[in-house]
Amino acid sequence: MNRARIAAIYLLLVAAALAALALSLVSGSVHIDFTGVIQGLRGNDALTQALILDLRLPRALTAFAAGGVLAIAGVLMQVLLRNPLADPFIMGVSGGAAVAALSAMLLGVSGLFVNISATLGAFGTIALVFALARGEGGWTPVRLLLTGIVVAAGASAVVSMLLALGDEAKLRGMLFWLMGDLSFATRPAPLLIVYMAALILCFPFARHLNVLARGELQARVLGAPVDQLRTGIFLSTSALTAACVTAAGPIGFVGLVTPHLARLMLGVDHRFVLPAAALLGGILVTTADLCARVLFAPRQLPVGALTAVIGVPLFLVLLRKKT
């Protein structure tokens, strides 16, 4: 693929990301035009400034970062398992984080303790998948994927039991959180840092990812540190998923669909796929969050439900194109 086309695709993605963020600032139950947004950012209108800086901008940035983080995790997981259906949700990482976070909520804790619980749940789930999937020949992509699917199903069952045992007064909030909820996203900085750090740290390993995607044996022959890469990818996807779950709840289909879109546009070179998927993930979740706020305003929809509504037909179209 020539450089001009790659540059054009990236310019288009950046423009789409900026447009999605801009629309998120002007749209909502109270419409503000772009002039009002600029005046609010300058501090000329205190009410508009509070609406944008305290509510809409943090939520839009959190949505963008969450989508980008999930997209990066999806790319890494699909490379490791060499399976186009692999993502953090299918591998059970998100389910483990959700179980731990809901358990913390039921115990009456909140804030930082819920975030810590979700992180520990994600790492505990991936450790469980590793332990259960290890056979006589070590870990294989098929065994890891099947084990992850079973663990994810188990986590889903535990979540259902926790909801049944939970306080009815908290049930609606817990359900919204489980379907992806950005209504309480007021601190986007931590997730934005995770987003940028993931891109910066993963990019130097893009060539290794290209080799690993062709098969473990070929990667070893070419001198790639397969064992270290495999462990690093699992730990990275666990941390990325936990960071997203704690900030926005479980949001599905982003890590599954966006890597396919990026590869369709830019090929299989992960030097280009990783940044493109990160942008596409951010655009998808930001757009879904915008729709969640405006379609039935002033009522809001769960973001995860809308990403599924967008992601399912999109994935089916991509599947049809490849077959």
TrEMBL record:
GO terms of biological process kind: siderophore-iron import into cell
Keywords: Cell membrane, Membrane, Transmembrane, Transmembrane helix, Transport
Main location: membrane
Topology versus the membrane: Multi-pass membrane protein
Keyword Electron transport: no
Any one GO MF annotation of this record: transmembrane transporter activity
GO cellular component, one term: plasma membrane
Superkingdom in the source lineage: Bacteria
Membrane-crossing residue ranges in chain numbering: 60-81, 88-106, 112-132, 144-165, 185-206, 272-295, 301-319
Cellular compartments annotated: Cell membrane
Pfam families attached to this UniProt entry: FecCD (PF01032)
The keyword Mitochondrion appears for this protein: no
InterPro entries the UniProt entry points to: ABC_BtuC-like, ABC_transptr_permease_BtuC
Family from the record: Belongs to the binding-protein-dependent transport system permease family. FecCD subfamily.
PANTHER family, sorted: ABC TRANSPORTER PERMEASE PROTEIN MJ0876-RELATED (PTHR30472:SF25), FERRIC ENTEROBACTIN TRANSPORT SYSTEM PERMEASE PROTEIN (PTHR30472)
The protein's name in its UniProt record: Iron complex transport system permease protein
Organism the protein comes from: Steroidobacter denitrificans
